[in-house]
Amino acid sequence: MSTGFPIADNQMTRTIERPVILAGRLFNPHRADEVVVTPKFAATSGTHVGDRLTLELASPQQANRGYDGSTGPPRGPEVRARIVGVVRTPWGLDADTPGSPGGILSSPALFTRYRANMLGTSGQTYINALVRLKGGEAAMPAFRTDLARVTGRSDIDVWDNDQQIGDPARKITAYEAACLLAFGLAALVAAVFLIGQSVARYTSATVPDLQVLQAVGMTRQQAIAAASAGPFLAGVTGGTLGVAGAIVASRWMPIGFASIIEPHPGIDLDWLVLGAGWVMVPLVVLAGSAAAAAVALTAGRRPAAQRRSVVAAAAAAANFPVSLVIGARFALDPGRGRATVPVRSALVGAVAGVLGVLAAFTFSAGVSDAASHPARFGQTWQLTTFLGYNGQDFGPAGRVLRAVAADRDVTGVEDARIGGAQSGQVSIESFTYAPVGGKRPAVVLTAGRMPASPDEIVLAPTTAQELNAGTGSVVRLTGGTTARKAVRVTGIGFIPPDRGWPQGRTATSIRTRDRRRFSLDVIAEILFDKWPGAC
User: Fold this and answer.
1) What is the pTM of this model?
2) What is the SS3 assignment for 30?
3) Out of 174, 188, 273, 411, which residue is the most buried by the measure of CB atoms under 10 Å away?
4) Residues 316-348, buried b or exposed e (16+ Cβ, 10 A)?
5) Rounded distance, CA 188 to CA 195, Å?
6) Domains of the chain: which residue ranges?
7) 8 touches 129 (CB < 8 A)
8) β-bridge pairing 485-493 and 456-459
9) Helix (H, G, I), strand (E, B), or coil: what is residue 493?
10) SS (H, E, C) 385-412
11) Cα gap 94→358, rounded to integer Å
12) Count of alpha carbons within 13 Å of 74, Cβ hemisphere only?
């Protein structure tokens, strides 16, 4: 398991980004043998505060070749470290995403003591820096300008973390919240019809007995109160149980992506919501039962009349089959006297139930389709590998790519080169589209076409939105030490590799014929036997 990017100084956890301590404490920045872990690491590994781990470091030679753990065991020193805390931090969000085992954050002292084992000695590496500006977001344009002036490079990505992490998190959690709200509203509607019918029928069934008591002096208000007492007490009991259940269930909330970024997991009492529900449920039941009792008492004074359904009567007049006529009467005739039942509410409830089931199946089918077809959101490949950065390949990249493309199970290979660019205050990670061996991985476009000349470009949907650009627009880019260049947008689509790769020779996107099988014999021979540390 990788510890990710090592922390290089103690500002990371004290001024720039302060993690939430879920258990234990933060590491001592002067001790190389102390680490903190993310909640998912603690859960998947079964470790706790106080347990010890063995950190295996790469040798400087392995670090020079971009060692990532895939080419054999690390050959550097081993460090016995103790877990001193479980923390939640935006820097560790990626480590706790679904399917990952969690992550470890090491002390800055570990990086200071074993710098060569992490960065190597060749100088060919990349570094991330977290910066907090006194002027906040408004100061970012000046910071970008000054950074380009000091470094002489305009292709250094500068990300607004609130935009890169906060905005996607808010969108995902807002979607999850909307789904839960829809589920709650559906449950409310179902409860109104199902429980409402039971309350109305129970109340109406008590009215004939209460009418007898009215003959010996019971007032109308007393009859309504007596008929509503039972449902009201049931509403108080149900509301209390519901509040208690919500308090217990809050221990496992929130769910989904929100559970990864929740800073204070555990039981949570929101009395504004719980208190309102506790009061409103019995009152709504009381109001509904009282209204049903009042209507039943009023109807009881009128002569009982047999009400017939117009639909059932029309079916009988049209000489429909007997089974159809009887079924229509059972479903639509309300009956008379004590046998009277509320037909309309039952029909509306049935319709609402069917619509709810259809909506649930439709939503489930959509989610399942998106999960089983990654191409819906642009992922048309199964494998990627990292071949170099900062203009330096780890080895014979061209030979490896040709070997991959020659495999009969591979249907698409892309040799992508990544470079940073700027357009105004928007950072644009640029990728070349260079198929290998005539095997072209598909690119999902939402509009337009792929570029066909050096002065054309396809923008990702979010980047296009940030630039307020569309198909046919002209944007001006500045990258590296090159002058500003105007390019025309020919399409909007999803970029093949994931964002966040360093600049240089990059990720190879590999599309296979059969997702369950991929022959790697020849590639493994090149990568692992003849080219250690290549991948």
Assistant:
1) 0.67
2) coil
3) 411
4) beeeeeeeebeebbeebbeeeeeebebeeebee
5) 10
6) 12-130, 165-369, 388-529
7) no
8) parallel
9) strand
10) CECEECCEECCCHHHHHHHHHHCCCEEE
11) 35
12) 21
